[in-house]
Amino acid sequence: MASKRVTSHDVARRAGVSRATVSLVLNRSDAVALSQETRERVRRAAAELGYRPNSAGRMLASGSTETIGLIISDAAILPIDGFIPQVLHGIGQVNRERGLHVLLEGRDSSSGPNPYEALVDTRRIDGLIVLNPRSDDEPLRALIESEFPVVLVGSIRHPKEHSVNFSSRAGISAATRLLVDLGHRRIGMVAFAAPGFVAADARVSAVRRALQTHGLTMPDDAVDYADFSAESGYHATKRLLQRQPDLTAIFAGNDTIAIGVMSAAAALGRRVPGDLSVIGFDDLPFSAWLNPALTTVHIDAVQQGALAAEMLIRLLAGKPVDARQVRLDCELVERKSCAGAP
C-alpha cells in the first residue's frame, strides 16, 4: 500500500504554525515578517517529513520560473572545448545550492536567429548567463540595454554589462618573460578562435603588448587562428610553421589548442621543448599530464562560473552587486614544455 503523501497541513501541524506560514517560508516569500526561528522550525519540519512543495504552485505564487538560462555562444564548442565543463560545474554548483534550475542552450552561429527571444520573451527563464560572448552580438547588446538580468562569462566591453572575466595581462607577461629569459626571440601564436571573440582577441593583444616591453614584435603572419578544437589547433600550427619555420616558441590560445600545437610539432619532426617551446592558457586538469607537461597560465574556471551565477542571483533578488565587471587574476604555472631557444 502506498504511503500517504505529505501535505503542507502536516508540516504546519509539526511546526506548530498555520498553513499560510508554511507557504510563506517554503516559497521564500518576504511578504510577511517572520522570525528566523519560525522559518527554521518550518524548514526543519518539512525536512523531517520529507515534504516537497509543488513547484508549479510556487512559481505561480512568486511569478518566478526558478530557472536561469545559459547560452553557449557557439553550440559547436560544447563537444570539443575543455574549458566549458569547468565553468558549467561552477554555475551548476551555485544554482543547485539555491534550488534553481539551469536551462542550457547553444547558439548555432552569430548570424542565426536571435537566440534570446524564445527564452526571454516567453518568460521561460528569470535571468541569463552567456558564455564566451562575441563582440558583434547585437541581440545581446540590445538585451543588456533592456536591463534584463544577464551576466556574461567573458565580456563584450559594453558599459552596462554585468560580467566575470579574467585579467590575463600578469599571467601572459610572466609567460613572455619566461620565454625571453630562455633566449626566444621568434615567437608566434595560435589563437583559440577567429577574430571577433573578445577573449581570443584580448589574449593576442596581451601577448603583443608583453613582447613589446622586451623590444620584440609578433607580426600578423606569426599568428594563426584555430576554431576551439585540438584538431583545428593542429592545422593552424602547421599553417603557421609553414609560413614562419624559424619560430622557436608558440603561445597557444588555450590548453585544448596547445594539444594541437604539440601534435603538429611532432608531425613536423620538431621536438617539444627541444625545438619548439609551447605555452598554453587555462591550466585545465589534463595539462599537467601531457607529455611534456604543459607550461600554462592558470585561471580558475570553476570560480568564474560560480561568481557569474552568484552575481545573477543577486540581480534577480534586487540586491546590489559589488562591481558590474569583475576581473579575476591569473598566474603562470611552469612545467616541462619550455626550454632554451635552439
List the keywords:
342 residues, alpha/beta, 434 Repressor (Amino-terminal Domain), Rossmann fold, 3 domains, 6-stranded parallel β-sheet, 16% strand
Give the amount of beta strand, in percent. 15-25%
- Indicate the low-confidence ranges by residue numbers: 55-62
* Rounded mean pLDDT score: 87
Amino- and carboxy-terminal Cα gap: 78 Å
Please give the CATH class of the largest domain.
Alpha Beta
Indicate the percent of residues in helices: 25-40%
**Total count of helical runs of at least 4 residues:** 12
Structural class: alpha/beta
CATH overall fold name of the largest domain: Rossmann fold
- Overall, the morphology is elongated
Task: Specify the biggest β-sheet.
Answer: 6 strands, parallel
Radius of gyration: 25 Å
What is the name of the CATH superfamily of the largest domain? Response regulator
CATH architecture annotation name of the largest domain = 3-Layer(aba) Sandwich
Strand order in the sheet with the most strands: 2-1-3-4-5-11
Q: Give the total of domains.
A: 3
**SSE order, as H and E?**
HHHHEHEHEHEEHEHEHEHEEHEE
Number of strands: 12
Write the layout of secondary structure elements.
Elements: H1 8-15, H2 19-26, H3 36-49, H4 55-62, E1 67-72, H5 84-97, E2 101-106, H6 117-120, E3 127-131, H7 138-145, E4 150-153, E5 162-166, H8 169-181, E6 187-191, H9 198-212, E7 223-225, H10 230-243, E8 249-252, H11 255-267, E9 277-282, E10 295-298, H12 301-316, E11 325-328, E12 331-333
Parallel strand pairs: 1-2, 1-3, 3-4, 4-5, 5-11, 6-7, 6-8, 8-9, 9-10
Antiparallel strand pairs: 10-12
